[in-house]
Specification:
Layout: E1 8-13, H1 27-44, H2 49-54, E2 57-68, E3 77-87, E4 91-101, E5 105-118, E6 121-123, H3 125-128
Antiparallel strand pairs: 1-3, 2-5, 3-4, 4-5, 5-6
């Protein structure tokens, strides 16, 4: 999952309550960072989850693959980057990386796969939203 210029990136700082007994970020927090970055990416593209849901349209994660490369510690600054791709007719893939700042050390490499549902049934993403907003083609 090589990354060129990302479609989107978001900076964070590690908070003390995200640490485990070893003094490093708990593994579950990385999924929260990734999810928050995906949501902010979608909002930045005028994709509104609440509005979609009211229309019977939902975007759901069906698979999360994370490779942990190095830990983050208290007060570390980092960024999450996002690129998107299609996987077949139904799946959208979010290729996400987490980098420690300022040295850009790779912390996590992730591949998050999602599908679009319309009234609870899997649907082509372009039937649910304007996929060009995500950097994808129909």
């Amino acid at each position: 999952m090589e990354e060129n210029k990302p479609l989107y990136e978001l900076e964070f700082i590690v908070r003390d309550y995200e640490l485990d007994l070893q003094g490093i970020v708990n593994n579950s927090c990385y999924q929260q960072y990734l999810e928050h970055a995906r949501h902010e990416f979608l909002y930045s593209r005028n994709v509104n989850f609440a509005k979609l849901h009211e229309e019977g349209k939902d975007l759901v994660v069906i698979r999360a693959e994370l490779d942990y490369k190095s830990p983050l510690k208290s007060r570390d600054k980092f960024k999450v980057t996002i690129n998107t791709a299609r996987d077949g007719n139904l799946k959208i893939v979010f290729e996400q990386n987490i980098y420690r700042l300022p040295d850009m050390k790779v912390v996590v490499k992730a591949r998050i796969t999602g599908v679009c549902l319309f009234n609870g049934r899997p649907s082509k993403p372009e039937d649910v939203m304007d996929v060009s907003l995500l950097g994808l083609t129909p």
